[in-house]
Amino acid sequence: MAKNLTLRKGKYYARIQWRDDNGHKKEKQVPLRTNLKTEAYPRLAEVMEKADDFKEGLDWDFPWLKEGSKVALKERSIGETLQEYYSVRNVEGVRNTTINRIEVAMKSLFTMMSPRTSLVSLDEGVLDRYKRHCKKSLNHKPNTININLSKIRAFLNWCHRKEYIKHLPYIDMVRVERSEVNYLSDDMMLKIMESYGIEDHYKRAFLFYFDTGCRLFEPFNGYIKGNTLVIPPSEAKTHRKRTVHLTEITLAILHEMCERVDNCIGKKRFAVKNYSRVFKKACRMVGISDKYHFHNLRDTYAVRRWAVTGDIHLVSKEIGHKSVMTTERYADFDLESLLLDFKSLEKWIAPRLEKPTIDRFFLNALNSAIIPSEDTILEDTIAVCSL
Question: What pLDDT sits at residue 96?
Answer without folding.
Answer: 75
